[in-house]
Amino acid sequence: MPQPKVKLVVTGDDFGYCPRRNRGIVECFLKGGVSNVSLLVNATSAVDAAELAKRHLIPIGLHANLSEGAPVSLNLKGSTLLNEEGFFHGKTGFRKALQSGQLNMYEVEQELRAQVKRFCELVGHLPFHMDGHQHVHVLPEVREVFAQVVADFGICYTRIPVEPGLHGCPLIPPHLRDFYIQVQKDALSSVEVFRRHGIRWPDVYLGLTTMGQNMSVASVKQALSYALGASSLNNAFTGAQSDSPAPKTDRPITAELMVHPGHPSRPQEGGCGQGPDDFSQSEDRQHELETLTDPSLLAYYKQESIQLCAFRDL
To answer: 217 phi and psi, to 5 degrees?
Structure first.
């Protein structure tokens, strides 16, 4: 077989969130729309998700969660990671607590290690990759602890959410743009930390500009166009690869496309201990599922020599 131009990992995040999300992600995998999943081990349907991954031989990694729902570790009573109800502080609350110096990094480490161990109990092997729910793994201080845990368990791959073309994307509303730009700054500051621990990641990350209603066959093609040429990659992603120069023509470019397909969660069904959020209940989940399995997108992959694969295949 000819060498592909791009090895593309299409990762379905939030596997385990609820039965309907699980079912939609599996449908997407079976139709060729996703090639990899990321499991929330503290979610209410994590056991079901792990069984589905085994049954359908779905490559699976850990979506480490420090911001939504209840912890896995049993040693965090009164923890700085939790609010008065015993739940994580939320996407914004976690960042505020971190910025004010309120979070204990030893407790972060305890929880991350507990989630890796829980993953192994559910799935039967270590994660093929490990990233952070709501991108918490690239935050200051957290990234150091995260990298050490990943390295200690011998997990090879993570996610560096720095997306070519993000700054020029007109589809993203201002409040999300500000958040995404900060995510990118944190991610770039994580590069040296992850490199020092021997952790790897694909050449290109995609997914912030193609989330929800912004996802279309055209927008996915546009995002992928940045990955199709070594010169574009070198300009857009300088410094963010672990230890290799810009890809040459003798090897494929590697890329990850982060996606969130599924059937929308029903109220009071799913979540990580507090019920499903608006993001999971949105019809955007169905829209992503339909787009990712659109025959014209799957044909485009073949036409452009884009090979869908998993982190374990890189």
So the answer is: -60, -40
pLDDT in tens, 122-153: 999 999 999 999 999 999 999 999 999 999 99
Q: Is 60 helix (H, G, I), strand (E, B) or coil?
A: strand
Smallest Cα–Cα separation from 283: which of 304, 255, 262? 262
Give the count of domains, the chain.
1
Smallest Cα–Cα separation from 278: which of 286, 289, 266?
Answer: 266
Domain that holds residue 99: 6-313
DSSP 8-state class, residue 34: -
Residue 252 in domain: yes
d(CA 199, CA 112): 16
* In-domain check, residue 1: no
Residue 42 maps to a domain: yes
Is residue 13 part of the annotated active site? The answer reads: yes
Question: What pLDDT, in 10s, does the model give residues 106-121?
Answer: 999 999 999 999 999 9
Contact 287, 212 (CB under 8 A): yes
CA-CA distances (angstroms) from residue 158 to 7, 68, 133, 198, 199?
Answer: 16, 20, 12, 11, 7
We report the CATH number of the domain holding residue 240 as 3.20.20.370
Catalytic hit among 13, 14, 131, 203: 13
Using DSSP's 3-state secondary structure scheme, residue 12 falls into strand
pTM of the model: 0.93
Report the C-alpha gap between 47 and 211 in whole angstroms: 26
Tokens of 277: 């959020």
265 and 281 in contact (C-beta within 8 Å)?
Answer: yes
Out of 30-39, 40-49, 272-281, least confident range: 272-281
The answer to the question of residue 67 being in a domain is yes
- Tokens standing for residue 76: 């965090």
Alpha carbon dihedral 304, 308, 313, 314, in 10-degree steps, equals 50
Q: How many other CB atoms are found less than 10 A from the CB of residue 207?
A: 20
CA pair distance 303, 300, nearest whole angstrom: 5
Q: What is the pLDDT of residues 224-244, one digit of tens each?
A: 987 665 434 444 444 444 434
